[in-house]
Amino acid sequence: MFLTTKSSLYVFFGGRWVLLLMGLLIYTKSGNVTPGLLLAAVLFHTAYSLLYLFKMGKKAAIAASAVDISFGIYLLWLTGGLSSPFLIYCFTGLLMVKRFVTWRGYYRISFCYALLLPLIFALTSDAAAYIYLLNHFDYSFVILGYFCLISFAHYTIQAVRKQYRKMVMIYSSRFMARQPRKQGGILYLEGLLKKILDEREVMLCMERDRQNEKALSWKHTYFTNYMKQNASLHGQRMYAQLPSPTGELESLYIQTLLDRGGKSYGWLLVKAEKNELSILHKMYIQFILMRLEAIHFSDEELLEAEEAAVAIERNTIAQNIHDGITQELFFISIQLFQLKNALPAHARDEMLPYVIEIEKKVKESHRDIRQFITELKDEKRTLNLHYAIEKMLQRITENTGVKPIFEHVGWVSQEQVDVEGAIYHLVEEAANNVIKHAKAKHLHVMIEVTSVQWTVMIKDDGIGMKSEDRHQEGRFGLGGMESRIRALNGSITFQSEEAVGTTVTAYIPRERSTAYV
After folding, report:
1. Is 20 in a helix, a strand, or coil?
2. Could you tell me which residue ranges the Histidine kinase/HSP90-like ATPase domain spans (predicted)?
3. 404-461 pLDDT, tens per residue?
4. CB-based contact 187:199 (threshold 8 Å)
5. H helices, E strands: number in the chain
């Protein structure tokens, strides 16, 4: 608020005292000053200042301002009208009116006051108003200067308030850093950046989706993939023109998001022309990105702790099953074997089929439990399929010289377990084939999901398969891949050229009722 703090009132009244004393000094040199005028001016200004400094009610303050303006007009009338040395002093009295009205109302009151003064003094001097104004032409410069001053003050106050509000919004975002992995954190910071950057379009494109974060728009996905594929744009901060999803060039300010180890984890894209963002804008961006980096760091720490805890728990369960149920089944199988050999000849033909069937079921249960133990120790039961596949590709290609490239388009909040399992095993089997047989340098996996189907593509740049190898049953595990996909009413194709590479593409239909983004 304008002139509401005690310090601002001290400055204001101190300035008015200076103007009053300067007016008295100038008027004294003309020899027209009287002790009564001097005493009245000093006493009134002293009383007026003290009343304001000791706080008055709103009605009393309005009445005091009206008396101050009236006294100013009277003082001008006594000391020469528009030629009075107290003219600026009287205009400053209008500043107190701003405390009770809006800026628009204040401009109107000031304009009416500026017009009223020459009319009043023209009437008291028995002269026409326009002649009186012509004789006091320098009055127009005072009015011009006054309105320029208050307009500058208005603009400055509005600008300061705007920046202050932005700083308050940035300060309030500190709570996000205290609540890592909170749902909607990225969207919140993106909206905050949009407000701070004066409603410019803003996108936070993260290299890896947070497990608890709702997927962002298709435009975010497009630009994230574009940034991943263009290493030349991985600079710290830069302006660039990038093709939009519709093919048009968009002017963007790009900043790479770096964690505390200097590793990139995403990009900030702001729609802005070159050098359009001010220094303040960039400073605010850094404040927000500090919050984002703190959230990212906390998320990574919690994720590692969570993965470690889950791995320990799974290993414990797997070990308990191995030491308990598995050993019991093994013991039962031994007992069945002994029972089978100990059957008397007269009952052997009748009892042997039942014993063999039980033995078969025990072996199947034993095999299923061992598979379950293997799965418990594997990463494919991670909540996020994309994240699980990314981790699996890193594990398979580690220390092999093959560079994994993983892309995913679209997002579903929930999918059938058998579909996710089939996708995971398909990628796993195809990736192992690439490592064992393809002699490739790159392994490219792309998973796209729509409301209709899943599309899974595994591509390498290896030596390819010979035509006779593709039709051999069990060769490279192609039959297993095909049966797994067809069990879900899907289709799979294999394309391979020698010395060029192999591409495996699978299509799996989805249930229409399953949520899709």
Report:
1. helix
2. 418-512
3. 999 988 776 567 777 887 888 899 889 888 888 888 899 999 999 887 889 999 999 9
4. no
5. 17, 9
Query: How far is the C-alpha of 179 from the C-alpha of 185, rounded, in Å?
Result: 9
Tell me the β-bridge partners of 238.
254
**For residue 463, which amino acid is it?**
I
Listed residue (257, 240, 260, 258) closest to 249, CA to CA: 240
Predicted local confidence at residue 382, as pLDDT = 47
How does residue 395 score in pLDDT terms, banded at 50, 70 and 90? confident
Percent of the chain with pLDDT over 70: 85
**CA dihedral of 72, 78, 84, 87, whole degrees rounded to 10:** 0
- Strand pairing class (403-409; 501-509): unpaired
**What are the backbone angles phi and psi of residue 253, rounded to the nearest 5°?**
-95, 125
Cα atoms found within 13 Å of the Cα of residue 233, Cβ hemisphere only: 21
Which residue in 440, 443, 435 sits closest to 476, CA to CA?
435
Contact between 313 and 305 (Cβ < 8 Å) = no
Rounded CA gap, 341 and 458, in Å?
51
Output phi, psi for 409, to 5 deg: -125, 130
Q: CATH number for 385-509: choose from 3.40.309.10, 3.40.33.10, 3.40.1190.10, 3.30.565.10.
A: 3.30.565.10
* Residues contacting residue 53 through CB under 8 Å, at least 6 positions apart: 6, 9, 10, 13
Burial class (CB in 10 A: 0-12, 13-18, 19+), 344: exposed
CATH (one of 3.40.50.300, 3.30.450.40, 1.10.10.10, 3.40.50.2000) for 183-299:
3.30.450.40
Write the pLDDT tens digit of every residue in 331-389: 787 777 778 778 787 777 788 888 888 878 877 777 777 666 666 665 444 446 787 88
DSSP-based three-state secondary structure for 418:
helix
The C-alpha atoms of residue 418 and residue 490 are separated, in whole angstroms, by: 13
Q: Does the reported pTM lie above 0.70?
A: no
Residue 236 has pLDDT above 60, yes or no: yes
